[in-house]
Amino acid sequence: MEFTLSSRKSILALTALLAITAAAYYPGLSGAFMFDDIVHVSKNKLVAITGLAPDQLLQAWNSSPFGFPESRPLSMLTFGLNHVFSGFDPFWFKATNLLIHLLCGMGLFQLTRMMAGLHGRIRGVPLPERHINGWALLTAGIWLLHPLNLSPVLYVVQRMTSLSALFVILGMITYVRARMRLLEGTGGLAALLLAVPAFGVLAFLCKENGALLPGFLFVMEITLFRFKTATAPARCLLQLYFLLGVVIPAVAAVVFLLLNPEWLMGGYAKRPFNLSERLMTEARALWFYLRMILMPDNAALGFYHDDFPISRGLLDPPTTVAAIAGLIALLLAVAWGLKRAPVLAFGILFFLTGHSIESSVIALEPVYEHRNYLPDFGLFFMLAYTMTCVFQKRPQVIGAALAGLVFMAVGGLKTALRAQDWSNEAAMALTEAEHHPDSPRANFRAGQLLVSLINSSKDPEQVYRLARHYLERTVELNSNNADGLFGLIVLNLHAGKPVEQSWLDELKRRLEQAPYDPQNITTSQFSYLVRWHLTDGPELPPKEILGIFDAVLHNPTLDAYARAGIHAALRLYYHKVLNDLGAALEHGRKAVEAWPQRWYYQDRLIRLLLKMGKYDEAAEQLRRAREADVNRLHAAKARELEQLIQSTMQKKEQASTNPAPAS
């Protein structure tokens, strides 16, 4: 269904909604980079391209520290493009995210119009255009302004989520347009076979969730469109389309997991839960999302949800069995509604399909709000239909429409308030700790922020006490957390107070025994502790520093990436603090061995070899570094190192042939 003259008012209304959304989010655009933004964007030198030459674009495309598909290259490319035009100014990164969000909202408006029009034709009861436009406007407006959708806009790295969603939406629009033609008998197969998969590939290159596009289309088909076409052959082709695009891939995925259980179970080795516990927890998480969708509460929403309890059994907590029973009831409602209430069936099934990757068997952390960014469209689609198309009597129509507008307005107000919190790093950290007092990460972030403010505070002792409270709370909440102990140690170093031996002893114990995962330990803590010892502040004895490193290197769950970072920090400590070049060289080699693709580690090792006069080994290491740089992302830096090696060797030769005159 295309825009018509009678829909001009709808276009104006949509424009107003987009403007209101931009205004609600605008305060949050001034917020800082945070959490994973640091690793993936602001401290990622490969993102920092300065032009649009093919080699620079390829560098940004391959700038993720992870391998494909986790690298999400198309999203990484857009971060590089942001840097070309605005450097590492977080405002413009977040403004780009907001633009993507607005485009998604426009896409969902048009998608809803098209789905509503086609569904009405298939049922033989076409809806009036005013109903279709009202349905589409309310769906898009609620989605645009809902506070649950905030993090993919103001958390820069979650552009991966929103950009993937944009391409999925475009794929769905293309599919519905093709379905209209199949219903009319005027073609549409080319779009199904070429354009829709192309959008799916683009979505997947932004984030793996793009693989859900065929599933979303299948949900549309079995609930709203019912495989109805103009001819029997077209219907058969459509069924074959989903057999090849959904059923066979789903069966293949299940068979793969059954034959390769280690692929799935390996991720649980470092998690504080097993597969069954995660599945039980996710049942409760889905109901938490549903509650936040229907009754958004800014105090319950948050950046961190590591305070969400893990389900250890059906009755631990007791809500676990109720949550599972509730999900079964939802599936029964879908089965009942397939013929009787197809919009209801679509809304529930679309939501559950959207969570089928991140809220199922994969060993991810249990709760993140951004997982609802596209799945909640199904529920808003269903809700807006109820408020615009179900009632016939005028008082009921007016009441339902007002209820929809109030729901949208309340969501917009809550989003504006959240965006205001996100505009200031300090306000956000303290608000998160206030709203989530049992979250180790929220407490740690608040304590970490206060540590950085001690020296500039008018009352350093008060700031010290508050920071210590948050950091001790972090240590208390998670018996495996090492970050809080690092924070307490750095806090006392900052404040010029003695570091308590009990902190050091407990830190070593946890580093050696606790599962090495992001909820417990952040690898950057080690390099930060070393860099502190390059300042003029108080220091820990070398025995304690080396004891901390020795403990973590004996942790059996340490992965290669973390091991590389720890050896790199040890290289820096031996080199710059202890001036022991031999030990520094040993750890520099181990860092490269653990992660040879990390150019920074290669660069530091080669420069250290040159400093030690090991020129031939430096040249050989440069050759190995080039081999590891399979995409030649660091070719220019490799040439610089090659020139440095040559010039250093020339200086040595000149010094040996022209010795300094004797005094």
Defining key terms:
663 residues; mainly alpha
Structure in a nutshell:
The chain is mainly α and 663 residues long. It has helices at 8-25, 36-42, 54-61, 73-86, 90-123, 129-145, 151-154, 159-184, 189-206, 213-225, 232-259, 261-265, 275-294, 319-340, 342-354, 376-389, 394-422, 425-435, 440-453, 460-477, 483-495, 501-513, 524-532, 542-553, 560-577, 581-594, 599-611, 615-628, 635-657.
Report the order of strands and helices: HHHHHHHHHHHHHHHHHHHHHHHHHHHHH
Oligomeric state as shown? single chain
- Give the rounded overall mean pLDDT: 93
Alpha-carbon distance between the two ends = 93 Å
Count of helical regions = 29
Please characterize this protein's 3D structure.
This protein has 663 residues and is mostly helical. The chain has a domain at 5-33 and 88-420. It has 29 helices and no strands. It has helices at 8-25, 36-42, 54-61, 73-86, 90-123, 129-145, 151-154, 159-184, 189-206, 213-225, 232-259, 261-265, 275-294, 319-340, 342-354, 376-389, 394-422, 425-435, 440-453, 460-477, 483-495, 501-513, 524-532, 542-553, 560-577, 581-594, 599-611, 615-628, 635-657.
Question: How are the secondary structure elements laid out?
Answer:
Layout: H1 8-25, H2 36-42, H3 54-61, H4 73-86, H5 90-123, H6 129-145, H7 151-154, H8 159-184, H9 189-206, H10 213-225, H11 232-259, H12 261-265, H13 275-294, H14 319-340, H15 342-354, H16 376-389, H17 394-422, H18 425-435, H19 440-453, H20 460-477, H21 483-495, H22 501-513, H23 524-532, H24 542-553, H25 560-577, H26 581-594, H27 599-611, H28 615-628, H29 635-657
Helix pairs in contact: 1-5, 1-6, 1-17, 3-4, 5-6, 5-8, 6-16, 6-17, 8-9, 10-15, 13-14, 14-15, 15-16, 16-17, 18-19, 19-20, 19-21, 20-21, 21-22, 22-24, 23-25, 25-26, 26-27, 27-28, 28-29
